[in-house]
Amino acid sequence: MKISELNLLVVEDDDFQRLTLLNMLRSLGIRSIAGARNGKQALEMIREAAPNPFNVALCDLNMPEMDGMEFLRHLGQMHLNIAIIITSALDGKLLTSVGRMTKMYGMQLLGAIEKPILLTHLRELLAKYDNAEKTTPPLPPARNFTLDEILQGVRANQFEPYFQPKVDLKTGRIIGSEALARWIHPQHGVVGPYEFIPLLEQSGNIDDLTFLMLQKSAAQCRVFHDTGRLLTVSVNLSLSSLSDASLADRITHVVRAAGLEPQYVVLEITESAAMTDIASALENLARLCMNGFSLSIDDYGTGYSSLQQLTRIAFSELKIDQSFIKDFADNDSLRIVVESSIDMAHKLRVKSVAEGVETQQAWDTLKSAGCDTVQGYLIAKPMEAKAFSDFVANYSHKSAPGPTQAVQDHSKTRILIVDDDDFTRKILIRVLQDFGFAKIVDADSAHTAIKLFEEHAFDLVITDIDMQGMNGIEFIQLIRSGKAHTKPDTRVVVLSSFSQTEVLGSAFALDINGFLVKPIIPAVVYEKIIQALSERLRLRAPVAYEAVKTELRSLPSFEHHPAGTHGGAAITMAEHKTHNGNDVLHTHNLTIQRLRPGMILRENLYLMDGSLLLSSGHAFSELSINRLNDLRALLKENSFAVQEVPNQ
């Protein structure tokens, strides 16, 4: 329907403002317009206009006899298909609140305008009417399934995961999906979750569905990997399931039985579940994290948690609820809440995810706010596995939604991959090529890599640690000590398992530029490589690296060395200047986030298993602070004693 064809009602008590608004609407070509002095008169006109109903009502709030809010309440109870535009000179926060109330009464809100009203704004809101009329889906008829019917469907294997893509906002690439349960009913077709999940949770039967979805989602994710798409999959966990002390082990068994590593599975728990004080629930979450799963706080902002409660869980993703995302681009209060949540996630070193992204404006606003990942109908609705696979294949050849951005050129970056596992090298090469890296060379051993240095100059070396002949630590030592004919500013990223704490200490001492944990996750690879290439590289004198221990007992290839060989974790002892007696160096207990280059560590720093990582006296650099951030989950303490050196 064109704007000129709309039938409008203006509800405004001020005669001059009502007349002005009527004239503005006529200037837009609208001919069918009526005016009312208050809500009571407007309701009478609506009842009398039944043969030719109003399409849109423009409503002031502060009016005599019946104000705008009472008018909207009565209008909502009449269940008429009239769209609303709120107009008022009152505070914008109040308009936002009344707008939310209007939606809760079941009415279509086109928007709210603060007076004085501009013609351009009025035209924009009226243009939404035709759009909304076309895109509003009809509500499905309500169906009341019994618990027995639902459980029979679970036993008959009628439930399937539908996958909704998650997109990285920086690269525009699909990095994973959320698996959402759908009941493929033999008579009713596809049945949504709100018709069966509440009853399963209330009756204590949610576990059967949870494990069915987990098994099918993990198996399908394995299929995605086998076809060259290294995506993660997110699966929802119910609070009621967390009370079972064996849950973590059962989940781990199901995922690994499907041939999938836990690192590719994100387990979403609601904010209320993260608040629980049940010891077995907290143990399950900690054990799942220890087993390699990522934890996501789902529906963030809808619960009643405190920030202190949220920090009890080692979560790696904060998922902002769609109720905040919808309309937040036009709502100052909601935008502040969303931006603050994104900022908090970054300060906690976790990913921010926005769900319910349905408009280009929301995408653009989230991108400018620094949000990491988005999902929603703007990208795609949840779909069955085959459709999702086809969607990913086609999407990879399209530019992501949003304005064209300048893409960083990686085509000239020269990368060497060193790993004795052929499959790992092939996966890494494919991932890097997908991100635009073109100059990639691989080697199956450190000795082969050293020969390549004679012919090639590399910007970045990605090396495994556990290799035959020469382990990765020995290889990196040759690079850092200047004995491998590499560029002085060569960056080094280590492929390792965080269970090998002895390796971590030695790698730390060799001033590497990052850790990558197997199995390979594309989004993590890209993030670590970009950080490695961009961080400031201030290396010590080559001779300093020759003292680092390279014989590692944690590796199968370790052989016993004579007594007197340096033992324990390798420790970086950076030099720092001495200060005269007039300098007062105050010691503070600081978290990693508050560390700055030049600060001096004043106590030994240990990993959780008791391994020494850094000795007292270490002078922090940007490099060592970044590596501590990489290892923060393995540190024994969250804060440590440091001194800030005064300026010379």
From TrEMBL:
EAL domain segment(s): 143-396
Pfam families for this protein: EAL, Response_reg
Membrane-crossing segments per the record: none
GO MF annotations, alphabetized: cyclic-guanylate-specific phosphodiesterase activity
Domain Response regulatory as annotated: residue spans: 7-130, 414-533
SUPFAM superfamilies, per database record: CheY-like, EAL domain-like
PANTHER family membership: CYCLIC DI-GMP PHOSPHODIESTERASE PDED-RELATED, CYCLIC DI-GMP PHOSPHODIESTERASE PDEF
Name of the molecule in the record: Phytochrome-like protein cph2
